Amino acid sequence: MYIPEYFRITDRKIIIDFIKKHSFGILAVISSDDVDAVHIPFLVDEYKENFKLWGHLAEGNMIIENSTNMRGLAIFQGPDAYISPVYYKYKSVPTWDYMTVHVHGTLKFTDFNENTEKIKKLIKFFEPDSPIPDNLSEKPYFPMLKQIKGFYLIPDKIECAFKLGQNHPIEDQMGVLNALTKNENLKEMTDLMEKNISIYKKNMFK
Amino acid sequence: MYIPEYFRITDRKIIIDFIKKHSFGILAVISSDDVDAVHIPFLVDEYKENFKLWGHLAEGNMIIENSTNMRGLAIFQGPDAYISPVYYKYKSVPTWDYMTVHVHGTLKFTDFNENTEKIKKLIKFFEPDSPIPDNLSEKPYFPMLKQIKGFYLIPDKIECAFKLGQNHPIEDQMGVLNALTKNENLKEMTDLMEKNISIYKKNMFK
């Protein structure tokens, strides 16, 4: 992903928090000389300063068949918004603002026992009060566990772009914030725009 | 993408309408033996029974450098929702419902004149009242047009999955609909769930 420097986020905590918040991601892989993708929830498996992602596919899913150490790209998306130049004081072109994390890495399959452990964690993550994790040896859970393929995505390149108009004059950033702030769905985005603007203003008087 | 038959949509009009509604997509490509992706708006270019997608990248974007006829996958996403088994009458596992279109094809670059025409259409599509398309020969628009790489994605495989629990008993589909219907953001999804349920009920009395 091409990321102009003003949009690039490198803070590991911000990146991991973003993945946890938007954990229904896309796994894109190279499959039979084409690029293919699936939509799945990912579990962040943190250790020391680092993390791995765990995911699972239906057994019928051919995209990671017959492969070991294949490359994978996990894509996580936050809010996005069309940005009209009418929001700007200065002349410009329309654009699109968005927030995304890309995790590039290698896929390693996990076995039945590890899949069972991870599925428990996955359910607890999305639904802390679910009674299911205690019952995974029962029907219909146990037979279904045999029908999944679990894998780790072991990251070797992590990219995070929060494209929020940081390259525009402060008046234009304020114009965009003002236009988008009515939309409750964009709160994650407008909160950061507001923060960027207040950091700029604070530095003005230093 | 692995699509169980009950989730597969093949109606061309539904697919094109979905892309137009969710046209800020992802372009995934194979780049230097890895998979890479960018987030961009796509324009649907319809002709006869068919369509092409047009998109553009910043000149600095290396992912389609030095390549002709490379493969591309455009991914368009609709709403998605975690589905708890507590919504169900019958015992089941948690899952995720989602709506997506994948367009696989070959990338062909477009030249300056074609890029200019397409940018006009793109702006008119997202913002019908914008004065910009008439002014593209002025500053700052004209110099910026020279800094983009435009391309067609010419489809050869189109996949559409609306995963809305159609494989579950009707009581469970009703349970999910009931749980999700409070969320206004999922209206596109719950409208279709409602339609599936009403088609089922109508057929019961045939």
From TrEMBL, chains A, B:
Q: Which SUPFAM superfamilies match?
A: FMN-binding split barrel (SSF50475)
- Which InterPro entries does the entry mention? Split_barrel_FMN-bd, TR_PAI2-type
Q: What is this protein called?
A: Transcriptional regulator
Which species does this protein come from?
Answer: Acidiplasma cupricumulans
